[in-house]
Amino acid sequence: MKINVDEERCCGAGQCVMLAPEVFDQRDEDGIVMLLDAEPPAEQHGPVREAAEMCPAAAIRLSEGT
Ligand code: SF4
Questions:
Q1: What residue ranges line ligand 1, CB within 6 angstroms?
Q2: Does the predicted model carry a pTM greater than 0.90?
Q3: CA 18 → CA 3, 39, 53, 65, 66, distances in Å?
Q4: 6 CA distance to ligand 1 centroid (A)?
Q5: Lesser CB count within 10 Å: N end or C end of the chain?
Q6: Cβ contacts of residue 24 below 8 Å, gap of 6+?
Q7: 3-state class (DSSP) for residue 57
């Protein structure tokens, strides 16, 4: 799995950080998403998929595969 985040779309809602805090963080100054791990280990894939579905701005894109 490979993750891309679109900082232009992100509205700083923070769902992704609550669901997968090892993969996503938010900038202190404006709450915009920061990607901590673009290719997370398998145990993170479930929460990351959930985060991508829950993101109100559809700012999280996943490429499945390896
Ligand atoms: S859930 Fe989406 S909009 Fe909210 S902080 Fe994460 S990427 Fe940004």
A1: 5, 10-16, 24, 26, 33, 55-57, 59-60
A2: yes
A3: 17, 18, 13, 25, 25
A4: 9
A5: C
A6: 5, 16, 17, 33, 34, 35, 36, 51
A7: coil
Residue found under tokens 């920061």? 34
Ligand 1 atom nearest the C-alpha of 57 is 3
Q: Which residue has the tokens 């997370």?
A: 40
Domain map (residue ranges) of the chain: 2-63
Q: What is the pLDDT of residues 13-51, one digit of tens each?
A: 999 999 999 999 999 999 999 999 999 999 999 999 999
| CA 65 to ligand 1 center in whole angstroms | 23
Cα radius of gyration rounded to whole Å, the chain: 11
